[in-house]
Amino acid sequence: MTMQRSAFLCCLLSHVSLALSIDISKVQAVNKVDFQPNKHYYHTHSSGALYETPVLIENVLSREECESICGTIMQELGDEYVSIQRKVRYLEDDEIQIETEIAEDTLMNAFGYMFESHHDDAFFCFCEGLLDQYEGLEKVRKILHNARESLFVNEECQDRDIFEYFPEDIRPSDCVVIAGEGATSTLHRDPYTWTGTSLCLEGTKLWRFIAPKGACKPKANDIDSRVHEIDEALDSYRLPSVAWDDDLYLSAGWQSDLSLYVSRSDDIPSAEEFASLEEHNSEKVMELMDKIALDVDRLVPSADILHWLSIRSIDDSPTIFTCIQKPGDLLVIPASWWHQTYALQPSMAIASQRGSMSRDAKRVIEHIFDTTGLKIDKLDLPLVIQQVLNGSYTGEPETIVNALFEVLSSHT
């Protein structure tokens, strides 16, 4: 494996110089007790443009709470069959090749495979809706829900989630995500253009984001349109995600077959080496992981991405944001930011989402209308929907959802 990896790195040498011009910044991090949505996540430019940036909220749950949740999930769901993705990398004619296999096995066995994983033979498991199926997980569901929503709905902020009022059969659900060392998620941006969240329960997760052009210094309210430049550059395609009828989907995400982690330097410690080091100096481990996350010469993106990013960074930086997520940390992910994870250690996390009243409701409605192909004059829409779209609505989230699905029922 080492010879293959070294050979592959050699074939990328012509692209390494491109990495030097790429500006990478750390995602802002804030402790749970200090987090304020309107300060750390929601932003308004002096021009009036609205935008959001990723934020890592630390210590949302304690280590003990995370361990308890992991134990309960494995106890209740360990015998459930799930789909396990295995990616094997090999070198052929000086080009890296990836073979992907999908197998069915129990969640307990899947978790075991994660400890056999490494960069060139990696295991990943994404289990959507699994937590909703068992009464024995009601307490876990409540803890996870409160951990997320208490950050946005409290005495200082009442930014409620419209998805809570969606019909149960199409309501977005939490996902259990487990990854072995070297495993990556797909490079993607989310369906519904929602606000994504990820709560790490075990291990660590390395994240990289591609910021929409001008996202951190917008001069006009066009962040959503600018992200389409990235969609095109990444040769993205759409993935329908929520069925409204047999042949009609309400949402579709964006995905790319390129990667922000196509190769890995041999000097990056293994998961076992990280675990050994952590026993003696956990702070040093986090410092080392931060350095790796910021270094595109050690975790190397696809050559096409390097080339595109190096050109873009000339007049619009920073381009990539990154962070290391540890147990108890919750990451908030803006709608238009492409992102991908990499596992330096085996990990378990809960991926979720919310449709905030303040920012997401308008985007979600527009996304649904666009995905379904619904063509209707704004003046013919219910007043509630008109107000959401023009930013003047101040009522209840349930009223928005009721009006939305009345429109869908009568026009699709």
From TrEMBL:
User: Which keywords are on file for this protein?
Assistant: Signal
Q: Which residues form the JmjC domain?
A: 145-371
Query: Which PANTHER family does this entry report, sorted A to Z?
Result: ARGININE DEMETHYLASE AND LYSYL-HYDROXYLASE JMJD
Q: Give the residue range of the signal peptide.
A: 1-21
Q: Which Pfam families match?
A: Cupin_8
**Source organism of the structure:** Chaetoceros tenuissimus
Q: Which domain of life is it from?
A: Eukaryota
Q: Can you say what this protein is called?
A: JmjC domain-containing protein
